Structures
1.
Amino acid sequence: MSPGTTTTRSNHQYKPDSAIKKAALFFAGLSLLLTMRVGLNGAAFCLKRFQLDEKLFGIYVSRIYSAMELFCLMSVTIGTIYVQTYEKYFENISIGVSIAFSFINIILLLVFISGGKDGRLTGFYWTLIASAVIYGQKQVFIFQLAGESLVYYLAAIPLSGIMVSTFQVLTLKLFGDRRRFNTDLLVVGFQICLSVVITSIAAILWAQVFVKGENSLVNQKNNREAKKKQKDIENGSVASNGQTYGNAHNQVGILKDLPVISPMIMSIIGLGTTFAFYPSIAPGKLVDFKYINNIDVIIMILSSFPAALVAIVSEVTDYGANKEWTSTNGFWHAFLFFPFVQVVCEILFIKVLHFPKSETAKMFKNPRVAAFFSVLFFLCHATSVGVGMAGVFPNSGPKTTTLNLFLTMCTMNILNFLSGGYMLEYNKYDRAHWPTRAMGNCAAFRFWLKKGAINGLVNVKAVFTRNLRRDILAAVAT
């Protein structure tokens, strides 16, 4: 054997992921955000169930969303530390987490329907937070164990929003007469029942897939190596006995890491920055309130297509985003165009808010233009996440995949709290008393960043409440 050759000794044969594993990942995605959708999509009904005025909608949604995202990040952080440090019991823990997520939905239902006329708002709030802790863990182990089938999980997440909205419409059709029915309790109650069913199916499928050793992390690693060997044989760089020729796979340094940088950028920008702008700024600050619902419906429907298309391409071809982004599959790097466009949209949104006399702001006064850029912005997000999240694993491995999730969640939470604090400060002023009128751009940026950070810290403290009803009413009073 010559000095430039190596031999691969593994006899493991490559096996593509089974249909049941793909189904388990799909239902994991479909179930993941169902409790958050109870808190947010069902917010208008929850307000009435808990005897709160409709004018408190914005404060209620902000408190629920901020709390769930913060505790989800804490959970993801703990989970990431575990999977980066240990390589044991992933499958068993993930099964336990899936079962726990189903049970927390049952508890959420009991808390929601109890408490008499006023209900148990604070208990409901903390149960939602508990669910966020569980689905934070769930995400970590999904990204660790999914492998190439992650595309089916990603495709299902936006579909859950359409499913919940459709379910709400149907429930309103049946029980919309408030003179005969307790409509608000029934709409959210049935939505939680749907969540119990979906999460139970997801838990059963997940347990069936990962209770067996064939889908263990070790077997997945062997499967990846076998696939790589098979591909090298097909390309002629490796003989069928495992002997490697020449300088195949001898890339070193940054060249070896280039394929994973692109999907990580897509993930961090695509998901990390989106909810700092949507929906509070785009479309919230760009169009009249009467247009917002229509724009949200368009966004909800269209945003389900990118991840679904990525999953379809990955299923029916050998050129999916869940394969290595090298050679003929390197065209996926061109999708960096989408996070770039997303950042351009974000800059335009900020310019409209702070330079109302600019040509950009004048252009955005047309609701069609504002709607177009809001939809474009969210489609760029959906495409970046659908492609980027799927592309990290095949170009690195499970540890980098969970690290990418952690970095994305950190970015999202930091920017969300800064954005919430910034919007709180922005709404205090009118143009006649604008605080940065005499400041230069750098000084103005520092002003808004400082105020956003201060208000954001106040919002973080507000998450840890013993009486949510009191805090929401006090926020309005001040």
2.
Amino acid sequence: MNRKSTRTRSGERSVSATVVSAVADYKGVNEFALDRALYNVIDPDALDNLFKQSRGVVRFDYLDCIVAVNQDGVVTVSSEGDCG
């Protein structure tokens, strides 16, 4: 069965923090229990800065998941089979 976790960035929370939260939710673990830090996969500051001034979508692999972030701060985590 295909699973998906979607989170929307809100308030002062950064895009990178929203990514970590969405991946943890997808994996069914606490954010601090993730096997690999986000900064080992993508530069969190660059990710945050990218969506401060530009529009678009960024996709990357993180902990065997496909993470997609759009300009509205929506983070979607899925398996490769779910990625469209």
3.
Amino acid sequence: MAAMNALHDGSKLAVDAHVKYVQSLDTKKDELDYWLTEHLRLNGVYWGLTAVHLLARPDALPRQGTIDFVLSCQHDNGGFGAAPGHDAHMLSTVSAVQILAMVDALDELDARGVGKTKVAKYIADLQDPDTGSFYGDEWGEEDTRFLYGGLNALSLLGLLSLVDVDKAVKHIQTCVNFDGGYGVKPGAESHSGQIFTCLAALSIAGRLDVVEREKLSRWLSERQTPCGGLNGRPEKAEDVCYSWWVLASLSILGRTHWIDRDALVAFILSSQDPENGGLADRPGDMVDVWHTCFGLAGLSLLQFPNMVPVDPDMASSLGSTRDCTPVSTNKLIPLLCTVCPDAPRFSDVSHLLTHIASKGHLHHETQTKLKAHQDIAASVTLQQYERWYKDNGIETLLVERMRAKQKKEAVRNIRKRDSTPFAPSKLRRKSKRSSQKAAVKAEDAEFPQEFSLFPGFFPSENDVELDEESISGDMLSLKGQVWPGMGKMDLANEDMKRTRNQRKPNSVIEKMRRTSERIEPNQVIMTSDFEVERIKGVYDSSSPIPDEEAETPKRAPRPKRKRPQALAEISVNVPRRGRRPSSRRNTTAKNTPPAPKEIMNDVLLPSVSNSSSIRHGHDIFRDDENRASGMAPRRLAIQSTNDVRYLRRTTFYGNCLAS
């Protein structure tokens, strides 16, 4: 019947019916089930109170009556029982602390109870000093549920220092399995409920670094069945309560998008009773307050419309834990953003503030504001975000962070007005071992040693604290313009608005001018011994001045090629008549090495009487009529070894013919 009604109603959540169902739980004292569940009475109050808080009905249950009932269950040792007269137990004590935190009545422990310190001592005494695990009571039952409950309650009380957190973390590490999950104790099977208790405890302790995120997230995402619901272990049926155990674990790991959101929402809504209220473990079963609480908590993690955000670590609404003192400052503020997709979580407040100031977050926030005019879900999401933004003082944190950053930068750059900008210093004595010549100009001796190579950066020894009087009048002249709507996302205070977008003061401009005059466009190349190796200009043809076209590189001159000597029509050994040897031949003759002496003697011309009968086709001798009688033999101009060999052969053949 519940499933048919849910399908008929579509995606509607019967808020009024669920509130009435929770309110009616304490009116069934004439029923047997009421007394059979007395051992869960205090836990049931926590489940019902959490449900109405998530439905944005925190006043549905009487606050004072709730406080009175909780305090009536307390023992003298500081622990709480499940009901008046029941023995104190860890689970009941944790529920009592969570209830008082939700109704903002933790101070009642000191006013009417035995005190916060005694409650915290009762919890701390249940920790095993050797293993770091926690017992459920004095009889020594061990379970990771008790460990998580102890850290949860102590963090709400602000007394987590009473226990050994490091040993508790080590015990959790011993419970991990090969699939990345956690069991109730070392060696036990991985279970979704135990995984949540271990992950939440590690998150409270700030030790999520020991978790195998990818492996565990894969195991958790496989818990979704074809019908959309989630189960606690493989091969088990789906159950509404695992919508919290599995989804909260994925939320801590930042992997809520690894499951089918719409299918899970449909499964949870199909398990509700829209007429009488309440949620069952699965469609068609009887409703109970346990599944009602954790089914609604799952819808809150899925950002269902009109639901109050829930803290996955503390298993309570965000508003109930924001004023509690946790293990670290990370828990002062719920470290998640509900306006962005998948409600991302953050490791610390600084990470959260960085996200809030990012363009991506501002984009999603603006889109949500635009959709809020027509979409009811977007309107509810925006209201929740704005309430979270206001309650946790996010604006103040952003302003303080910006002011601290601005002051830090100003202190680093502001100098005393009466201090000398450049203190002269002696030049460093050059090492005699260096063979490099000094390449620094004489005027470089005036360059101060303290002056940084980066213009505008000065040593921190002259820094002074930022003083309002040091701000000159010309710094207050703004050149910016404020446009309509800018103030909605403007996080600057009045002082920051006055000093931002300001033009540089005259003192800064003068300092920049003096700096530019002392800097030359040269590149000083140093050796490994900090000696000047060479100095080269920065602005040359290879690196032109900015905004100036590069100079066209000149083409390198090609080397002149020597023209090969043309073949002579006549032998070079024959002297030209009335002609002066050309300069080219003279050059060639100069470059030609002289022939050996013995070779020159072999090629002497024969006497006139002996050479008159020589006739040869190759014109190497003068004609007889052109030769004067009695002329002394002359040497031939030998050009190369080949010419010598050729001349020998010619002489030989000529002698043979003459004979």
4.
Amino acid sequence: MFISVTFGTNILVSSRNAWEIFISERKPGWKYQMQLFAVCSAVGFLSSFLFFLSMHFSLAHHSLGPLLISGFIWILLSIMLFCFKHLRCFSVLFLLSCGLKNGRDALITAGTGVVVASNIQNIFHNLKVLADSITCHLKHEQFALIKYYVEAIKWIYEVAKLPAELPKDIVVLKHEFTPSYSISDDALKQELNDTEQEIQRIANQISFMLTILPYIGQKVLPIFGFFLVSFGTVLFIQKFVGSHSTKFKNTYITKQFIAFDEHQKQQQRPCLLPLNRKERQDYIIIPSFFFTRKDRKKMLYSFLPVIIHFCIWLLFAAVDSLFYLLIISVNKYLQEVPDLDIQLSLFQNQGQQETDSFKIPLFKHNCIPCPELALSTTWIQLGVIVFFLIIFGLFSGLLTQLKILVSTSFYPDTEMKRIHYLHAKLLKKRAKLQEKTGRNMFARTVSHELWGKK
């Protein structure tokens, strides 16, 4: 137990030292620079490994290319992180940004791609199966009854022909009956062929679109998401260090703010801490699992597009399932439909009656539609996506706190400006509140005295 505690403490100390080296400016001395390069190499390796995973799943059968590119990115990123402090801040904020709005949007896009690649494509596939079934029935059954009519005529002839009791040496009868029929169905066949070709053409177009869209999403969206997250991270840094940095997300109390307030107290100047109940609703000490009212509202708003897209996914999945169940029900009904039983009766002059029967199938079994349904794999993928969307939504406030803490670590001068601004702002608010409270108490006292005189 003692060894495990010591080991954990050593890990924490090493991590803290590595973080302090990573956020600091480059200093002279080969030992310090070797430590800085080692930390930058570790961060570069993590970033290149994440890039390799995204490219590997996008190019599932080509792992050598992403591996070489990831190795090149690792080397290049390690050198650039070692040289530029701003890039170090960008890299950490980039990883954190993946869990905020940009990461949420990327997951929503991935979920939509899964629905397009499975449910919507399956709906059109089942529609094609249904159309193929209709054309198949038209091809096989267009003149099938004519064959049964010919068979009926042959049976009538065989039963009604002259009896064979006549002596062969007196009368020799030779009879031959070969019925034939001719149907001019060229126009109908051409119409059926044109219909089948048109159905196949439309199905190919839809299949191409539903194949190319997930392909584009799989190949292009990771790159687009990379640039989107990068743009959001650069915008965040610009707002944090820009001319209006003192007002940008300046609702968090850091350790440096607490130290500054303690210093003000020692100098016998106005201090703020501890915050009152109303102030704690809008300003919190970070890191903390308690969020401000604004953060809670943003958290609820972040779930709104998730809920909307999830309902759309459910709608397409329900349409796919209902259409599948409809075709399955029709399929089962067609298989249970009995054959049509035809009874033929022939009455002769002697009062004899000959009967026979034959059955006509109303539906060809090889033309009955067989739909497909692939909800299991779809909802496994969507379940994982929804799970991470919920996690990102719940911890979006905490991730924002981490981004602020990282930014203040890299830009301490900007943090001091923010601390002075927030400290003065809260003191001003508190003074106004005390002044307002004093006026109310004075008005209440005056009104009581007036009522007492009356």
